[in-house]
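Q: What does the predicted 3D structure of ADP-ribose pyrophosphatase, mitochondrial look like?
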Amino acid sequence: MMSGFNGTKENSHNKARTSPYPGSKVQRSQVPNDKVDWLVEWHDYNPVEYTAVSVLAGPQWADPQITESNFSPKFNEKDGQVERKSQNGLYEVKNGRPRNPAGRTGLVGRGLLGRWGPNHAADPIITRWKRDRSGNKITHPISGKNILQFVAIKRKDCGEWAIPGGMVDPGEKISATLKREFGEEALNSLQKSSAEKRELQEKLQKLFNQEHLVIYKGYVDDPRNTDNAWMETEAVNYHDETGEIMDNLTLEAGDDAGKVKWMDISDKLKLYASHAQFIKSVAEKRDAHWSKDSETGCPG
């Protein structure tokens, strides 16, 4: 069910049980580790109901309330332009509401999430080798491996460093979301003139047209998740081997990002949601430095 992350339900379902719920004072009902799984009977389970006002206002990116008579979503399938299929396979629907495939969260409703069921995002991980002034790759003195860098943004909503990324628009291909979100958050493309945008697109095309690695696809342990709505993502690594493409692009924070910078990859990183695990996978797949211990785990 939780493909891509090894480990127990407890450590893949922590952030989805934290209180207060983001952007509110709402406290979730406490869910002990042994009661997370839906297969464990828990007759006294009494989750708090919460859907944010911003979602209830009915913006374009949000579903109506499940009780509205003219709303009959097709769960587990493509519903018009809205993708309601999960990357993790079929999910249960109980009393007309989809059920979080990772288990109980202590909160029902949608919280800050627009869609009932899976809310699809895309996370572009843009990497290059760290180099000295002469252009030589820098190796870590202890592990002896080359140091990889990735483009990180500081999120405006919570102040944490993260991979740039965002929600897949209805009908949008994941590859288009990856490129659009990187442009908006790390290159401030929304504020550029049409001529600048065209130039940016040409450079980005080079980066996004080369071979890439799909690092993870599926459910994400995210503080916004509820029993009925959850985040899923596709994290994809685009690597600029020579560094020449990214040398010609100036990083500039935009949209949901407060800051943007190149960050060295190592086990010291403290990142938003499950992002550190995605970055660790990139380091392993690229045989780059991760930790001072020689064992970084099996390359996957």
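A (community wiki): The structure tokens above were generated from the sequence. The chain has a mean pLDDT of 88. The two ends are 19 Å apart (CA to CA).
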